Amino acid sequence: MSPYEDLIIDHWRNPRNKGTLPDPDADVTEANVPCGDVVRLQLKVRDGVVEDVRFDGRGCAISMASASLLTEMIKGRGLEELESMKPEEVVEALGGVIKPRLNCALLPYRALRKALDALRGEGSGANPPRRS
Ligand code: ZN
Questions:
Q1: Which range of residues forms the domain containing residue 114?
Q2: What is the CATH number of the domain that holds 61?
Q3: Percentage of the chain modeled with pLDDT above 90
Q4: Mind listing the pLDDT tens digit for each residue in 7-29?
Q5: Which of 24, 62, 69, 107 is deepest in the core (most CB within 10 A)?
Q6: CB contact at 8 A, 43 and 119
Q7: Residue 132 C-alpha to ligand 1 middle, in angstroms?
């Protein structure tokens, strides 16, 4: 077993930032139908920075580990920075993912894109922060 697989198992067994936020600025849900994975991602944004993040959901080990890892990757980062974040970064952080599982691994990333869209006022599920 490689250290990367250990990482996935660790995040799957001990998910980081799992739960819900009381007053999120973005609250989105994405599903990966073929595998039955569902990820809900909530962001709390302050001054253009992800102040807090939670995920919830159910699914296979890869999707849940990826969601947990993603929350650690995005917490404290600026929204503009996250806009330019590539899916490859998530795959790389997971230590590489075999192709048939890519949809599982990138489900949380897709949820993040949806949340960013919502925060820009596009799509649904957000109370976009007003900038003066
Ligand atoms: Zn899956």
A1: 3-118
A2: 3.90.1010.10
A3: 84
A4: 999 999 999 999 999 999 999 99
A5: 107
A6: yes
A7: 41
